[in-house]
Design brief:
By secondary structure, the protein is an alpha+beta fold. It contains 2 helices and 4 strands.
């Protein structure tokens, strides 16, 4: 069940280990909230949300598609598309 409406995805500053980050803004119960997502670029590229995002969206079926959109956005930035 979608409990938050995505509003915006922005490029953030790299985290302390140099991994790229993205900030997503959502509308949740009438208020805007932001969460930071980190992309790791090892052998397998992956994305991880803040613990508070994971808690807020536990078992929401839209989350995998949202993570995929972050990875697609990240890949397009890397490839210069």
């Amino acid at each position: 069940m979608l409990t938050m409406q995505p509003l915006m995805l922005m490029v953030g500053d790299p985290d302390e280990s140099g991994c790229p980050t993205y900030t997503a803004r959502f509308l949740d119960k009438g208020a805007e909230v932001e969460y930071i997502f980190t992309v790791s670029e090892g052998n397998i590229v992956s994305v991880r949300g803040e613990d508070s995002f994971l808690e807020a969206t536990y078992c929401d079926p839209w989350v995998p598609a949202f993570y995929q959109s972050i990875l697609s956005f990240h890949e397009s930035r890397r490839s210069g598309a």
